[in-house]
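Quick one: co-fold with erythose-4-phosphate.
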Amino acid sequence: MKFFVDTANLEQIKEAHALGILDGVTTNPSLVAKEGIVGKENVMAHYKAICKIAVGGDVSAEVISTDYESMVKEAKSLAAISGQIVVKIPMIKEGIKAIKYLASEGIKTNCTLVFSPGQALLAAKAGATYISPFIGRLDDIASDGLALVRDIRLILDNYHYRSQIIASSIRNPMHIINCAKMGVDVVTSPLASILGLLKHPLTDSGLEKFLKDAETFNK
Ligand code: E4P
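Sure, here it is.
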């Protein structure tokens, strides 16, 4: 399973990369705005900086237009930043058309804001490189985010679609574990949930005892 970090914060991306397990980064307009980035040139420069840190990994950058022509134009300028860029396209009618065209041009896409199996089926059919179901946002409204991921896994496998699932809107380490059990291709997560996977009290107490018992070894 690939690990992406879901942030536009350069320090967090550096920290995730230093762990040695980072395969890529996803951003969205809200995450970029949170970093205080203002103006098109600065936004583009920020994506470039992310690509440099996430050496060789895929970096999702989202279009902010909603009609076909503008999305394609924006996608082309985002893709020109680096071969690592994956263009995030919203799951709307014009978005499906854009994904189909961009796939034919060899531009990688990530169909975002996916909340139903039917939406995922359309994105796969259009040739999206990645499909992003939002688990946490469904859970937030008392719907079952993991059930959606399970349905999408089944549909993609039934027809051998090549689109990869990016489990998104991750809220806790258990989301990551459950996604891994279902065989999702990628989980994109805040760094805190990735670090949460490290934790176990028996590891901490076990290590404490081993180190105490080894106190005489260097004497
Ligand atoms: C997906 O790529 C999105 O950036 C992200 O996972 C959304 O998560 P949120 O629901 O925590 O905003």
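If it helps, The mean pLDDT is 98.
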